[in-house]
Design a protein that fits this description.
Elements lengths: L2 H15 L15 H5 L5 H9 L5 H18 L3 H26 L4
Length: about 110
């Protein structure tokens, strides 16, 4: 029996048993923004690290940038918005530095 058939059979059995029902995030939109913000040549490696809870610093910075952007959009307090804007600008600079260092040719 091929691996593919075996895998499909086990998936079918699990579906019949209801194993895939009530999973966290069921029915919610997949958020692939972080995935597509990661350079193509690094996606698989970063996905593996993320699944092992070992995401690189630049991936964490990307997440933080996204969270800050959401917080800015949701806040109505000008002082809070200003503080968040400063933090966002600082995190974007940090992220740009990480990405630039990684893409710089090795000597």
């Amino acid at each position: 029996m091929s691996f593919r058939r075996l895998a499909e059979g086990r998936i079918r059995e699990a579906m019949e048993q209801g194993v895939f029902e009530n999973l966290p995030g069921a029915g919610k939109r997949l958020d692939l923004e972080d995935y597509f913000n990661t350079p193509e040549e690094m996606r698989v490696a970063y996905s593996i690290l993320k699944n092992a809870n070992c995401a690189p610093a630049e991936v964490e910075l990307m997440k933080e940038v996204a969270r800050l952007e959401e917080s800015i959009a949701e806040t109505s307090d000008p002082a809070t918005a200003k503080h968040l804007q400063r933090t966002l600008a600082h995190r974007r600079i940090q992220l740009a530095i990480f990405l630039e260092r990684r893409s710089a040719p090795k000597r």
